[in-house]
Design brief:
The chain is an alpha+beta fold and about 650 residues long. It contains eleven helices and 37 strands. Strands 4-16-19-20-21-22-23-24 form an eight-stranded parallel beta sheet. Strands 3-28-31-32-37-34-35 form a seven-stranded antiparallel beta sheet, covered by helices on one side. The chain is globular. The two termini are about 40 Å apart. The structure holds alpha-L-arabinofuranose (AHR).
């Protein structure tokens, strides 16, 4: 018979005390060892795997401004009969130079349209309003522009028609809306033009109206909701390697991502070509999702913003291009200006730009990463110049420094030593490692210094071998991270921020796996790793306790891992237990330092008997946490811990 792991398994100690197999975990609620940082569990938003364009940025039209290297990539011109010169790509000055010129000749044309394929199709929802827009210039009145959404059988499932007024050559924006009559995961947009004369077109755009907070030109609400549900303590953005760039010309420059969307200069995404086996020639950054929007997102979900800026070094795996030290000033100025953009008064140059974008209030930026995965003496000497300039102007501002690509080895050791000596606020550690590494490193932070520089576990993920790449987020991976995080939590005095990476991946557009959250054009699902992260984030507590077994931290003995915190305001003891063994285990939780434990507690359980099992579009909640009410008797409840399981117990105390 299948066992139901629930309150039956928490009973009074007196029933079963004396069982030789029972392990005793001991905590003293009256003796917290450190505060848990409110920013402890956050998210790292990275534009990889079509995370931004084609992902959270809800624009449905791919290559809307014809700035991809191939100006008509994503578009198909359908013209009957073909007429030479009816469509040309022209170039003007400015950040968004290219546009399309269409010359219509009703005497010769039997039909003329432009078809956009979207990002692996367009996700269309029945009954939803779609907001269309385009920039245009024409001196010819009466040109009719039809927008038609098509399903995979080429049937029209929604349409709108406008007849833009003549502009005498000036550029204007035309906006209109229509409702879709059918749901389609792989829709396309056909734009048919009728009439006589010439019309120039640019920034052809289509957004669903159900964006996050209903913002026009905004983000996919279902994807943002997944983040909001985690109540992340911080959001690190926008990368990752895109911050560094293949070379310096391709680095991320925040100033080019703000202001009117049509003036944001497109850039190739490094993940377009980085992995030849997962090449994505249509992966570019339009920056419709830019730094303003990232700050807004952080504010919306109650997270501290954590931007990462280029430190004057391109990716050291790629070109390794360096800015000479005496030419670093513009990079440092970018960092100073970003602080002003986020926090400055509306009377300041950059504060005014923020206000003009609709946010006069500051974003309360407190920290910034300088460099992503940079290393070596070249990194240290550049970082030092940033640190000096930033802290001269903003003495309490926290700088997050890179420790390179690996959590150990000579590069790591060099940086770790030098950065601690310089008293940098945070060292950003990255580890993409097999599950065994995570199980084996639950004590990693036990020996770190408690004072001085703090750790930001900025990118980590457990990568199991031998499973098809897109299916790697299996239960083994998630369980190993759950086990490891007990050690992070135990060392809340050392680690103040942690984020899994990467965050999002499109099922048809990914470059890197595993990832926390997967999407297609209409759906989103969390991996078992997502639920681990969410469970930790929602149960981080305020103070950490020393939880011991035989006076030792529980970090792998008998395949058990555990940590404990209290929420001092709510007076709740929160215990996390991972059982990585294929067998049930009995644990007695001996709680000292309380008058009594409340009888009515909560249990959250994430588990599977199959370490290879995964969530998927077809089975999005195969592994999802189950919450139950449980009854606690006495101060030493006995817990039967299921095989391959991650538990969180929330027990009120007096
Ligand atoms: O998250 C994927 C990549 O891993 C990031 O871009 C980089 O920082 C790390 O190497």
């Amino acid at each position: 018979m299948k066992k139901i792991w629930s309150l039956f398994f928490i009973v009074s100690a007196t029933c079963t005390a004396g069982n030789a197999q029972t392990k005793t975990f001991r905590v003293d609620v009256s003796r917290p060892v450190a505060a848990v940082s409110p920013t402890m569990y956050g998210v790292f938003f990275e534009d990889i795997n079509f995370g931004a364009d084609g992902g959270i940025y809800a624009e449905l039209v791919k290559n809307r401004s014809f700035e991809f290297f191939k100006p008509l990539m994503g578009w198909k011109v359908e013209q009957t009969p073909f007429r030479e010169g009816a469509v040309t790509v022209l170039n003007r000055k400015g950040p968004n130079p290219r546009f399309l010129r269409v010359v219509l000749n009703p005497a010769a044309d039997r039909g003329f349209s432009l078809m956009n394929e979207g990002f692996r199709g367009m996700g269309i929802k029945q009954g939803l309003r779609y907001d269309a827009s385009f920039m245009y210039a024409t001196s010819d009145p009466g040109i009719r522009v039809h927008f038609e959404l098509l399903d995979t059988a080429n049937r029209v499932i929604g349409s709108g028609l406008v007849t833009p007024a003549a502009t005498n050559g000036a550029w204007k924006k035309q906006e209109f809306s229509f409702v879709a009559g059918q749901t389609e995961e792989k829709g396309r947009l056909r734009i048919s033009l009728e009439g006589s004369g010439t019309i120039d077109l640019d920034m052809i755009s289509l957004f669903p109206s159900d964006t996050w907070k209903g913002r026009k030109g905004g983000m996919r609400a279902d994807m943002v909701q997944m983040l909001a549900d985690m109540k992340p303590g911080f959001i690190r953005f926008p990368g990752g390697c895109i911050v560094e760039g293949f070379d310096l010309s391709q680095r991320y420059q925040w100033k080019k991502t703000i202001g009117p969307v049509e003036e944001r200069q497109l850039l190739i995404n490094r993940w377009n070509f980085e992995f030849p086996h997962r090449a994505a020639p249509d992966y570019f950054q339009t920056f419709g999702l830019g730094f303003f929007e990232y700050f807004q997102l952080a504010e919306d979900v109650g997270a501290e913003p954590l931007p990462i800026l280029n430190c004057g070094m391109a990716c050291q795996f790629n070109s390794a291009e360096l800015v000479p030290l005496d030419a670093l000033d513009p990079y440092i100025q970018d960092a100073l200006d970003l602080i002003e953009f986020a926090n400055g008064p509306v009377t300041s140059k950059w504060g005014k730009i923020r206000a003009d974008m609709g946010h006069p209030e500051p974003f309360h930026l407190k920290m910034m990463g300088v460099g992503n995965e940079n290393w070596g003496p070249q990194y240290l000497e550049r970082l030092q110049l940033f640190q000096k300039a930033i802290n001269a102007k903003y003495s309490n501002f926290k700088i997050v420094a890179s420790s390179g690509t690996d959590p150990d080895g000579p590069r790591f050791d060099l940086l770790n030593k030098a950065l601690r000596a310089s008293n940098i606020a945070f060292i950003d550690e990255h580890y993409y490692r097999p599950p065994q590494w995570f199980f084996g490193n639950a004590k990693r932070y036990d020996s770190y210094p408690r004072s001085g520089t703090k750790v930001f576990a900025g990118e980590y993920a457990s990568h199991p071998a031998g499973v098809a790449p897109e299916k790697k987020n299996n239960w083994l991976a998630a369980l190993s991270v759950a086990a490891f995080l007990t050690g992070v939590e135990r060392n809340a005095a050392v680690v103040e921020m942690a984020s899994y990476a990467p965050l999002f991946a499109h099922t048809e557009g990914w470059q890197w796996a595993p990832d926390l959250i997967w999407v297609n054009n209409l759906k989103v699902f969390g991996t078992p790793d997502y639920y681990v992260q969410k469970m930790y984030a929602l149960n981080k507590g305020t103070k950490v306790l020393a939880l011991t077994m035989n006076k030792e931290p529980v970090a792998g003995q008998d395949s058990l891992y555990a940590s404990a915190v209290i929420d001092a305001d709510a007076k709740v003891l929160v215990v996390k237990i991972v059982n990585a063994a294929p067998r049930e285990q009995q644990v007695q939780l001996a709680v000292d330092g309380v008058k009594k434990l409340g009888s009515s507690a909560k249990q959250m359980l994430l588990r599977s008997d199959d370490l290879n099992s995964i969530n998927s579009l077809a089975q999005p909640e195969k592994i999802v946490q189950k919450e139950t009410d449980i009854v606690i008797k006495g101060k030493s409840p006995l817990i039967e811990v299921a095989p391959y399981s991650f538990y969180i117990l929330r027990i009120p105390y007096l």
